[in-house]
Amino acid sequence: MANFNQMPNEILEQIFDNLDFRTRRNLTLVCRRWNAVLLSERFITRHVSLVIDGQRTLVLHKHPIHRTYPNLTLKLDNAINGDAFKGLRLLPTIVPSPATVKLHLAFPNDPRWVALCEEQQFVNLRTVQTFHLTGSCRTEHPRKPLTLQMDQLRTLNLVCSGVQDLWLVAPKLSRLHLHVLSEEHLDFLLHFIHQLHTLSIVFDAKESFFFYHLKPTSLRELAIDRRQKGMTKSERNISIAFFKRLDHLQRLELRVKFIDSYVLHTIADGLKQLSELSLEVAEGTIELKHIASLTRLKRLRIVACR
User: Where is the chain membrane-spanning (predicted)?
Assistant: First the structure.
C-alpha cells in the first residue's frame, strides 16, 4: 500500500477516473493522497464545471460569483427575455478561459446562440478544447451559416439538428462524436474527415446516406452505431471498399442489428493491423473464423444484445 501512496498524482487521477464516487471515497481509507489528487490543479481543470440553466441566467447578475471556473455547462432551455443577456454577459469574468464547454440549445432560432457565435461575448470559444453541442442550432439568420472560430478545439460532440446553419473553423479537431439525423450531418463531417483520428458516428435512421463513400484516411479509431439496420449484402461492395481505405485504423467498434458473414470476413481480411475489435449485434451469429486473420488483435469484445 505504501507504493500506492507514492504514486504520482497523474497516475492516481487515471485510477480515480475509472471508479464510481463511493469507491473513490472508500479509497480514502487506504490512500492518504486522495485530497491531494482531488484538489490538484490538473484534476480541477478536468472535472470542475460551472453548470447554469436558462432560469439561472436571469439572476446571474444578482448573485455575484467570486471564483473562476475552468469549464462551463450552459443550458439555454428557457424562453428569451430582457434579463437573459444581462446575466450571460458576466460569464467571461466567471469562466474566462474554458477548456470544456457543454451547450444545450432547447429552441431553434435562439438569439443567444446567434450572439454567442457572432460576437463570442458570452464564452471565449478560442480556448475551448472540448465542445459538446446538443439540441437545435437551426437559425433564420440572414447571413448563413453562423461561424464558430475554435482554434484550440480537439474534441467535438455533436448531437443536434440544424447543422447546415453552422460553419466550424477548427484546424486542430481530431476527435468527433456525431449523431446523424440527416444528410446535412455528413456534409458537416465531410469538412473534417481528413484530419480526424477518432470518429464515433451514430445513425438514428436506417439510411447511411453517403457515409461509405467518404475517405477517412487518417482514422486511428472508428465506432459505427447502426442498431436500426444491419450490415447487409445490399451495402456489401461500398462498405468493404470503405474499410479497405482505413490503412491506419487500430481500433474498430461496430454496433449493428446484424452483420453479413462475408462482409465481416472481408473487413477483417483488409484490416490486419487492428489491435482492438468490438462487435455488438442484436440478431444472427458471429463466427470467430471470420476474424481469424486479425493476428495483431490484443482485445476482442463480442456482445449479443436484445
Answer: none
Q: How far, in Å, are 87, 229, 281, 284 from residue 255 at the CA level?
A: 43, 10, 6, 13
C-alpha cell recorded at residue 95: 469562466
Contact 211, 223 (CB under 8 A): no
Residue 225: strand pairing partners? 202, 255
Whole-Å CA distances, 303 to 18, 57, 137 = 21, 44, 35
| Cα–Cα distance measured from residue 39 to residue 44, given in angstroms and rounded to the nearest whole number | 6
Q: What residues have CB less than 8 Å from 287, skipping those under 6 apart?
A: 261
Alpha helix (H) residue ranges in the chain: 2-5, 9-17, 21-27, 34-38, 41-47, 54-57, 82-88, 91-94, 111-119, 183-190, 236-244, 261-270
In DSSP notation, 121-138 reads: -S--GGG-SEEEEEEE--
Q: Which residues are CB-contacts of 39 (< 8 A; sequence separation ≥ 6)?
A: none
Report the C-alpha gap between 12 and 208 in whole angstroms.
42
Coil, strand or helix: which one is 199? Answer: strand
Question: Taking CA 168 as the corner, what is the angle to CA 173 and CA 250, rounded to the nearest 5 degrees?
Answer: 25
3-state secondary structure of 72: strand
Positive or negative, the CA dihedral 216, 220, 226, 231 is positive
- Length reported for the chain: 306
Q: What is the C-alpha to C-alpha distance for residues 81 and 86, in angstroms, rounded to an integer? A: 10
Q: What is the pLDDT of residues 91-112, one digit of tens each?
A: 888 899 999 999 999 888 888 8
CA–CA gap between residue 45 and residue 99 (Å, rounded):
8
Question: Residue 94 corresponds to which amino acid?
Answer: I
User: Is the preceding peptide bond at 145 cis, omega within 30 degrees of 0?
Assistant: yes
Q: What is the pLDDT of residues 139-198, one digit of tens each?
A: 876 667 888 999 999 999 999 998 988 899 999 999 999 999 999 999 999 999 999 999
